[in-house]
Structures are given as C-alpha cells and as structure tokens.
Amino acid sequence: MPTALKSVQVPHYSVLIVGGGQAGLSASHYLQQKNIDHLVLEKHSLTHSWRTQRWDAFCLVTPNWQCALPGYPYSGDDPHGFMKREEIIDYLDGFIRSVNAPVREGVSVQRVSPRPQGGYAVQTSAGEFSADQVIVASGGYHTPIIPRLAERLPAGITQIHSEQYRNPQALPEGNVLVIGSGQSGAQIAEDLHLAGRKVYLAVGDAPRCARFYRGRDVVDWLAEMGYYDIGVDQHPLREGVRDNTNHYVTGRDGGRDIDLRKFATEGMELFGLLKDLDGDKLIFSTDLETKLDAADAVYNRINASIDKYIEENRIDAPAGEVYQPVWRPSQERATLDLGAAGITSIIWCIGFTPDFSWLDAGVFNGRGQPVHNRGVTALAGLYFLGLPWLYTWGSGRFSGVARDAEYLVEQIAQRQHKAAAG
Does the keyword section mention Lipid metabolism (predicted)? Predict the structure, then answer.
C-alpha cells in the first residue's frame, strides 16, 4: 500500500512583522508588552539600512533628544547635539538589545497573501509561514531612483546613487556633479565641497530651514509649538504632505544652516533642474533662481512662525531677522559640457521608490502608495508602520515611530480580543 503523505505544519503566529528596522522593532516592543506572539522577518540584519546606506560623515539632522524609540530614549550627555554615524549604530544596537525581539534574520519575504479562511499566508526564502495579522514595517525607501538618462552618459564617468556614497576619497579624481538638493544631496555636496572637491549641483525643489534661530534650535521651537504632534488629518495639506520633500539642514560640526548660495560664493556651481542630455552636454531648466527663492521663502516662513509664537507668548529671546540672499545667479546656465567641466563622477540624490510588489493585497492607490488611516488598511489585519508621515512628521523617524507602533499594537490587540470572543 502507498505510504500516506504527511501534512507539513506551517509555522503560525498571531502577528508577523516584515522588516527589522526601528519600526519593526518598535512594534515588537509593544507586542511583547501585550504578550502577543509574533515574529520579525528581516531580509538582511536588524537596522540594516542604517549600517549600509549612510556615508562616513553622516550625522542626524535632528537633535539627539528626539531619539525616542520605545523604552529606549537617548540617554547620552549631549541631548542638543547630533549623533554621528557610528554613534547612531551604537544607539540602535542598544535598542536591539533592549527589545530582544523574536526575529529571523536573512529571511526575504517573497509574497504576503490573504487566506480564504482568514489571516495571511507568507511565503519567504525560508519557507511558508502564516499569521492572523501582518505589519509591513519595511519602510518606503526600497529602489534607488536613477533615470534612464543615465544610460546615455559617457562610459568613463562613474555613477553612483546617494546610498552608495561613502566619502570624497572613494571617488575618482576630478570634479563631481551632484543631482538633487534634498537632505542627502545637500549634505553630500557639502561633504565634497569641504574636502576641496569642485562640485556642480543640480538644484531641485527641496525647501530649507534654519538650524538655530532666536537662541534655540529650530526643532526645539517647533516641538514647543506642537508642530510634531500634528496628525496628517489635521495638517493643512492633509495627505498631500506626504509628497513634500524634507528640508535641508545639517547637524554637522554641532549643527548649522546649509546655504547653497554661500556655497556658490565659494566656488560651487549651481544649476536648475536636470532635463536632458545632448551628446556630452547636460541640459537644465533655467529655474535655479526660482528654486533658491522658493527654498528661502520656506526658511523665512518657518522663522516668521517662530517670531509669532515668541510674541504671542511674550518669550524673552534674542532678536530675529529675515534671511537675505548672499548670492544670485548673474545668468541662468542651461547646459553643462561634462568633458569641459572635468566631471568624472555623478551622484544621483533624487530619492527612492517603494517596492511592495510582494504584497498581494488591494490596498494601493493609483500611484502605488498604500491607503491607510494611521497605518490601518481596509484589509482586516494588515498594517503599515514606519512610512514618512504615516501619521505625524516623526512617523518615519526615531522621534515619532513609537507613537505609531503603540497605536497599531492597540488595534491589533483589540482585533485579537474580538476574534477570541467570537
């Protein structure tokens, strides 16, 4: 008689967490408090991106006191300083030990699908799992954006994405073109500039803000003003705020403004938005002055809101002032000959796109973005955590992910309780 086939028992958890960064670990912290069994699945190693996608001189752009991961707030002696890369890793290592999450590292999640009987089937590189509920905590920065134009650039030019940049010495000798002026682009351009490299910078739409104003860090003022507690449902832009580019500023050397105009007075060459390539010539929009003015307008608006707060609350603070441009382009330059400019390296600093292709769930809008309310989707038991502006400004940062994780775990616990009650 043929031997009966034995059924294979699929490991089952109440909750599976996809991603072992600060978001996934924060969820684990609160799930443990609720005694809810769960497992974190991490493709690489815990907090992998912090260890591999930051350049050598990287530091936080928000003060250390905002590092408020659950059960593990910053406890160092420099709360108003800005942790450097290795200090950030040390902080995260401490958080990992504090949480002591149940985790499988080196496990790639290949597909998550709703099961007909309820819950989710999770296919991974380590086999199949199942779960009653799933938290997607893999972040929103998955695929580096490099435009197809890059394929047409001269073969002799080194091209890297911002996630691959480490230091000026790692690039070939010669001049460098940085594409994009968001947080990464502005700071990488500064890193190269301070090292004495000739930098060309294609300026994008990123706004900027002051580091210090009227005697305090701007972040301190905004925190006191309640800005970081504003939910996306209360923000004037509503969900449109998720499309905003982060303001550029730096915590380097104790913190300071990044003023692209000042860099221009020191030899950095600025251009508008990159549009096309004609042979060895890059073509730019003649909108540099417009973009610089727009960034400065945001800078001054933030400072003006602080002025208003100080006045309304009769706070004793040093006098404020309106930023006045230290440089303006004498003429807009529409082209740049790469060879004549001696450019040997290009760094693409234009961001990432999310990749949720492994998630077989009808919870995405026409732009491929997950639709949710504070991380809770319309599909029962499916949640997102750690995305920018999931709920507040700090949702994708050390400062706000704890609030989001605690909220989601409360929803998970309530759903579990209802299921148990029948």
Answer: no
pLDDT digits (tens, 9 = 90+) for 238-269: 777 677 788 999 999 999 999 999 999 999 99
Closest CA to 15 of 355, 395, 408: 408
> Does residue 108 contact residue 37 with C-beta atoms inside 8 Å?
no
Average pLDDT of the residues in 172-179: 98
Read off the pLDDT of residues 20-45 as tens digits, 9 standing for 90 and up: 999 999 999 999 999 999 999 999 99
Residue whose C-alpha is closest to residue 102's, from 179, 161, 6, 31: 31
Cβ–Cβ under 8 Å, residues 181 and 247: no
Alpha-carbon distance 159 to 154, whole Å?
10
- HSE-up of residue 224 (Cα within 13 Å, Cβ side): 12
Instruction: Provide the strand spans (E) within 137-205.
Output: 143-144, 158-161, 175-179, 199-202
80/74 Cα distance (integer angstroms): 11
Rounded to whole angstroms, how far apart are CA atoms 138 and 119? 19
Residue 412 and residue 15 in contact, taking contact as beta carbons nearer than 8 Å: yes
CB of 204 closer than 8 Å to CB of 182: yes
| CA 170 – CA 176 distance, rounded (Å) | 12
State the fold for domain 145-348: FAD/NAD(P)-binding domain (3.50.50)
**Domain locations in the chain as residue ranges:** 12-142+354-421, 145-348
Fold: same for 12-142+354-421 and 145-348? yes
- Provide the 3-class DSSP secondary structure of residue 142: coil
Quick count: other Cβ atoms within 10 Å of Cβ 152? 11
Helix (H) or strand (E) holding 405: helix 401-421
Beta bridge partners of 16: 39, 134
Q: Cβ(403)–Cβ(392) under 8 Å?
A: yes
Radius of gyration of the chain from Cα atoms? 24
Return the pLDDT at 7.
Answer: 54
Has this prediction a pTM greater than 0.90?
yes
Please state, in angstroms and rounded to a whole number, the distance separating the CA atoms of residues 386 and 389.
Answer: 9
Query: What is the percentage of the chain residues whose pLDDT exceeds 70?
Result: 98
Strand-pairing partners, residue 212, are 217
Architecture (CATH level 2) of domain 12-142+354-421: 3-Layer(bba) Sandwich (3.50)
- The token pair that represents 329 in the structure block: 């382009």
Contact yes or no for 294/300 (Cβ under 8 A): no
| Chain position carrying tokens 């001269």 | 154
Quote the tokens at residue 40: 């974190």
pLDDT reported for residue 374: 96
